[in-house]
Every structure is written in structure tokens, then in C-alpha cells.
Amino acid sequence: MAHTDHQTMRRDLRREIAGTIGVLTDDHDFRAMRRYRSFSFDDHATYLRQLEAVLRARAAEGTHTTLALFDPEDYAAYCADTGLDPEAAASRTRFTAELAATGATVPYDGRPLTDLLPALVDEAVRQATWEYATTLLSRLGPCPTCGEDIGRAAFTRASDLVVRILDTAPPGDRHLVCTVSGPPDTLVSVLHGEQDPHGATRLDEAEALEFTSVLALGLATRSPGGLVMRVSATGTADRVHGWRLRGGALEPLTASEVFDAYCTDVESGDIIPPESGVDYREPPALGEEGTAPDHRH
To answer: Is the full-model pTM beyond 0.70?
Structure first.
């Protein structure tokens, strides 16, 4: 009887243990892992099918599982830095535990991997973009005129602008895209805002942080770029507003400029037919502060 009670308690405790699985999302990464003899899979499709079966089984047992993006190059560097044997399964487990704490992850919620893996890749891109923008902001240092930290001041100003954009937008769900051109790289960030029945806008905190950081970088470095917002509401045409990012400020685009931007292919420059049921409009005034253009952070 005591032995049965111990088994029951251990089974219950196992259900309390959350787990993380590092996932090889594409063929390139899968082929890179095949150089290790201890990695037993030969086919990426088979690997994903078996992984999905394990995830379903764990979910059926009531066990929570998180998916992490497993990068073979990062794994090799991790083993080199820590002195771990990259052939050992225990080394992959330790690396995955590090990913759970610091890397991009998504919870397994029963959806097929064909839906979850793109979300995991998007999360990894979002996190990398945020880290890159934050690093560049931190390197800007103090303002030579007033001594204020340029990156911190730009982030504060960008946060205020995002709030104003959302507050002045017409009712509906909001989809914002901010682009900041390099050098050295062009950064693109997306922010989704869903409006609840009471009119409040719900934002993903991590998404908002990345978006604000990218906008702040554009403001602080006076890099060219733009910000576009699309508002969707039931029973009305979608509305599209836009701003040009220039000289450390957001300049509203006219309705015709927004139309031209939306109906031009970014890569080829070819004209794209306009969408039906979409209104291209000049954005509401944001009431930007009267800081002199030669002293914007």
C-alpha cells in the first residue's frame, strides 16, 4: 500500500514538472545536427512527426511543454565555451535549459507544428530585433549639449508617440508596422493592438517593447523610415494612415502619399492594384512636443 502511495505521489509530481524541447525548425539546421553521431534522426519530416507525437502525449498527461528554437551554431559555441561534449544528449539538454531562460520560446497549446513553428521563428526574429535595437540605443551615449542619455530619452519619446498614435486612432483593431533603414541593417517591427468591448487596446508587452525600441532607434539616429497603421473594425472599411520618419521626427503622410506607399512594391517598385474596401487617409494630429529640431534626442 505504501509503495502504491509513493508511485501515485511521484506520478502527480511528474505532472507538475514543466519541460522545454529545443526544435530544429528547418532542413538547414536539421542537416547541421546530423554531424553528431548521437543525433539519431535521418529525416526532418520524420523528426517533426515524432516530435509532434511526443508533444501530444505530454499534453494528454497534463504536462506543460515549451518549444524553443534550437540553433546548431549557437549550440556548438555553447559547448565550446562551457567545455561540454557536443555529442552528449545531456549537453543538448543543458543548452535547451538555457534557451528556456533566455531564448525565444512558445508554449505548446495543441496546435499543429505547421502553425506553431512559424510563430516560434517570428518570436526569435522579434527578440533578435529588440536586442539589436537596444544594443544600438545603449551605445549612443549622452547628449553633448545637455548630457541626457540619448537612447533613454529617445525610448521615452517613442513610447509617448506610440500611445498618442493609438489614442488618436479611430475605433477598431490596429496593425502597426515601423521600418527604420540602416546602416548597417534595415529593421522592421510589427505591433498588433486588439480593441476590447470597452474600447481599450490590448497589446503584447514584448511586442510593444520591441516596436518602441525600433522607433526610438529611428528617432535617435535620425534614420529614414516610416510607420504605417491599419485600423480594422466590423462594418466599416479598413483605414490606413502613415508617417514618414525623417530628421528624428514623425511627419504625417497625405492620403495620396499613403496610397502610393501601399500600392507600390517595395522591392521592384511596380504598381500594386489597390485593395477594395480600404480608405487611405491622413493621420490624426499627434501634437508632437515643440522641441527644436536641432536638439531632438
So the answer is: yes
